């Protein structure tokens, strides 16, 4: 029997099918590679809810992994990938001696090029979580049980777990920790959520896909767009040009459907097998039952 998956990446949402009997991890990566036009070694695959990074040897059978037929797979393409996905503007290799440029989506504005920088899911998330915990514990008036939805200590213990997602509460806390407004652009709706609005003179931007946050940066020159060391990521709060540029970048990814519809996708609790719809039902079920393993179906 063939296996079908829905894959979501910065290139949009696609369906893939593996017809080979007993397909392996290598087979899956090759099919995804063919669909997205990138090298298999540039791919990272996540599955489940919340999505967790999968890792396996090439010969590992998919039947041995925690993925099932018709699952949604979330694909991360390494930032130095030379894929050829369509975009509003496409950086290409220069004919002069300047450094080679990665192919990537970007928006040109007067001061440079607005671009998304992928943020990996790694242990650095723990350090960000520690900053949030410190802020919550130091500010019981604004971060109380009514706001957090559970006792303060229980909440702090929860977000320190590596499989716990961050959201609005954590972004507000991080805004306070770093004394910087955080503007989150939702790719699906292009809604701009501002945390710390009007409180600080500087602002940073993130793009939210429904399951993951990525940073937004301004590269000063197209020839160095692959060099993140010269990125500008902190902006004046009154800079309307960068704000419009980030919104236009969000539109590019929205057009490619590079988001997960958190309100309407269907989930199943792997502990009690209860069917659920959307993130809110999953979060409520997790809060009431303590279950934290979900899969899409």
Automatic annotation (TrEMBL):
It comes from the Eukaryota. Pfam families: OTU1_UBXL, zf-C2H2_OTU1_C. It catalyses: Thiol-dependent hydrolysis of ester, thioester, amide, peptide and isopeptide bonds formed by the C-terminal Gly of ubiquitin (a 76-residue protein attached to proteins as an intracellular targeting signal). GO terms for molecular function: cysteine-type deubiquitinase activity. Residues 114-219 form the OTU domain. It is found in: Cytoplasm. Its EC number is 3.4.19.12. This is Ubiquitin thioesterase OTU. It comes from Conidiobolus coronatus (strain ATCC 28846 / CBS 209.66 / NRRL 28638). Its main location: cytoplasm. SUPFAM superfamilies: Cysteine proteinases (SSF54001). Keywords: Cytoplasm, Hydrolase, Metal-binding, Protease, Thiol protease, Ubl conjugation pathway, Zinc, Zinc-finger. CDD domains: OTU_OTU1 (cd22745). One of its GO terms (cellular component) is nucleus. InterPro entries: OTU1_Ubl (IPR048857), OTU_dom (IPR003323), Papain-like_cys_pep_sf (IPR038765), Znf-C2H2_OTU1-like_C (IPR057766). Hydrolase that can remove conjugated ubiquitin from proteins and may therefore play an important regulatory role at the level of protein turnover by preventing degradation. PROSITE patterns: OTU. GO terms for biological process: endoplasmic reticulum unfolded protein response; ERAD pathway; protein deubiquitination.
